[in-house]
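User: Can you write out an input/output pair for a complex, sequences first and structure second?

Assistant: Here is one pair. Inputs:
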Amino acid sequence: MLTPPEAAAPRDLETQSDDPRGHSSAQNARSIEGRSPWRLALERLRRDRLSLVALGVILLIVLIAIFAPFIAKATGHGVDTQYPTIGLTPTGLPRPPNSVFPLGTDDLGRTLLVRIAYGARVSLLVGVLATLMTVTIGAALGLVAGYFGKVVDTLIARAVDVMLSIPFLLFAIALASVVSVTPLHLGPFSLSKGIPIVVLVIGIFSWATVARIVRGQVIAIRSREYIEAARALGASSWRIIIFDVLPNVLPTIIVYATLLIPVSIVAEAALSYLGVGIPPPTADWGSMIADAQSYYQQAWWFLTFPSLALLMTTLAFNILGDGVRDAIDPRGTPFKS
Amino acid sequence: MTVPTSDSDRDASLLRLEDIVKHFPVRTGSALGRGHREVVHAVDGVSLAVSRGETVGLVGETGCGKSTLARIALRLIEVTKGRVVFDGVDLTALSARQLRTYRREMQMIFQDPYGSLNPRRRVGSIIGEPFAVHGDVVARSQRRRAVQELMELVGLNPEHYNRFPAEFSGGQRQRIGVARALALRPKLLVCDEPVSALDVSIQAQIVNLLARLQKEFQLTYLFIAHDLSVVRHLCDRIAVMYLGQLVELGPVGELDVTPRHPYTEALLSAVPVPDPDQAARRRRIVLAGDVPSPIDPPSGCRFRTRCPRARPLCGEEVPPLEVRAGSGPSHLTACHFPLERAQARVPVEVHPSQLLEEGNPC
Amino acid sequence: MALLEVLDLRVRFDTVDGSVQAVRGVSFSVDAGHTLGIVGESGSGKSVSTQAAFGFARGAHVSGRAMFEGRDLLAMSDRELQAVRGARVGMIFQDPLTSLHPMYRVGWQIVEAIRAHDRSITKRAARSRAVELMGRVGIPQPEQRVDDYPHQFSGGMRQRVMIAMAMALTPSLLIADEPTTALDPTVQAQILELLRELKDDFGTAIIMITHDLGVIAEIADDVVVLYAGKVMEEAAVRNLFYHYHHPYTEGLMASLPSAGVRRGELVPIDGQPPSPIDPLSGCPFSPRCRYAMAECAIQAPTLLEIPGEPRHRSACVLPRDRAARQALAEARRLPATQGMVLDR
């Protein structure tokens, strides 16, 4: 077919499009300090209004999580304190939003505002920790598999296949319920129900995808000439992995991590919703949603506000993740028409 | 160039490739079929010696094995068979640890100025990497200075120490690659098509730079290219490869003027001449067909399937690479029926810019 | 009358990092049956200008006129352009793999190219035409190879398939965008030979876009030299090689390695080409030009005729008449200026 090649947009410009500022800045020695790819990405991100809004929302949620005790103090309501008289209707139902409880109360007469604020702590903590764990395991295994290839690669690739074929929820529920009966002993740590086990479960189940993505990238990078140049210099494999390979997969890892945070938050909420996540009475969005479902006809706020908090958080992280990807790899969308 | 000619105590050649063979295993066959293993004969019995201070051009088309051979010379790829003797030491027999010290003495310049520099490292750190790997060469406190001196040497602004590769043009990036290769003051530089990816006006800058550096540091070059135009300009001797074997080896001024191997002749005549009158006049040899697969190379002479002069003998016997009657003493040809000198005369292109020097009337 | 006449073509791309001026006012024309060489280095806008003229530069802001067979391509609807492309204009690119669909047999693709413009041709007839074309472009055993997939062809053979497809409807113009750059020298020679034959047999005009002056010398009748999105010089091929006027052309010629020039004696053009993002003031080549005068940096020279040489125009303020050029060259005694004085 006489369709033009994918890059019907100018081949001549291709070298420019990935570093359109290259020539200009190399020529007029304006700034001697180099503009790192990171800084360029940051500058692009700064021009992306939607991502900035998302970032603002995330910062707000972080602030709320940090200052949850102050919110509790300001309202005068404790997070786990039940207010059977003022917090519940005479028939024992949650109270709608009012001047005392701005977001209403739950089925035990606890204040939703403070509980949602405390819930943000759990969500963010689990989201970030689980992502860190996922990414560390995944990236490490992906780097090793991709760079060394051969037997190492085969072993890791099979492990990835196995991990990806285990149903997450079934396994998580099973593990969590086992652990809640007999705590898991890992060296000096003993894990029972709670944040650590949730982080562990999510981390164990998500690294495989990261490993697979990183491995693919590393295989592509391994054949680049700068790797060959490093080998010709006599650099050791580990030196090459750390100084030459890792910095080039890091953008992918970062993008993936930003998109993984909301997934982990949702996973935590799902586990808690199913009663195998964060045990009560800890305030948690997932378990709040679970508790609220029997009351959604009588108390809309009980279901709505925790759900909104969860939705806003995951949406903000997803939008930011997209923005980060575009900023780091503008070639994905080279020309705005 | 000072080439030690009759130094009996030391071997005159800095690099000696002895009967190098490299076979890559590949799997072929359909998903249903059993998929049998086959080997790509990337390099098949190549011997080549490079003297100190000499520049040898290694020329051939895609898949002829020239890049593989270059990487074997630096032991970036392991040989299947054969020896790589560098400065009297057999590199193929060294352990990885022993090899590291020899890495200082031989470096490589790459083809792709975009692919050969890590885009996420600053130029200073790229050029300084050799010092970081071989920590005893330059003291840590002196490294920045050393790097900036290197930058100056290759024609880069030392103030751009903190820049990233993306902030340089193709030619400047190639200079960065040259600076990195020179950092450890190597004896041998393997240049893998260092100017093929550059624009003509920039090509000349890099070619001149390489020539200047050779003079300054008594470097020995193994210079790889896919055609003869740049090689002819920069090299002392040229080696022509076809399908994993050397077909012709000889000094510049002889091999490129009176080639004896039909493939060399075809390669010479294939390169478009930047002179319309010449282009209209000259005899072009257009080879038929494609290069055969290196998985199953032709028997006898590997060029015979495309050779206009092939006869039955060519399919039966591998022609040895040797001095043919009528050639100079260092001009070797692997052909049963080498071209006669008169017959082989490839029209020498004369560039308009040379006419004045040669005393043409203005 | 010119087959294609491009007038004051400007192409701009808006990227995330700024506006890229790829083509900054380029005019050229191709006569029927002639070969126009467009030569330039990376970023000169040589590929973009023809792509933009035929509506291939997606996301570009294009202005100017491109009169092809009497109609302005830039004023056409997509549907009209589609009818012109393929039928009246064939295109081949540096990498045929990007233009051939990997999942379809090449014969099928040629048949579709033919039938896309004329449904009255039966599949059987189109297929036999495909076989004939493949044979014509030098693919051995076309009856069998017509059912092969693109990956089963070598680089050179793939380029031949592309040429067969481009020539399927005997277009009046063939645009060849660096068609031999990715090929080995001996294969490049084959393809150039083929293009020369096709031009003679079919009377097709060719626009050969290349960075290689050797290819230009081999195949072009007329040449346009582009730099930073502007025309520096245009001339018949012999005039360009033997009587070039523009210092950039001179620089290109002097940078070429050739037999007999000894090591370290090439004359490169110093410096780097300007960024396509920065606005230009004056002559774009002036920062690298050995003859540059103060005025060059301020006012961009216009493309003016060289007296006594029809169709030879140069965008440089250096003297244009033969005697003055000779005097200038002698006065400077610079080895790279013989182009100006050489007279054959």
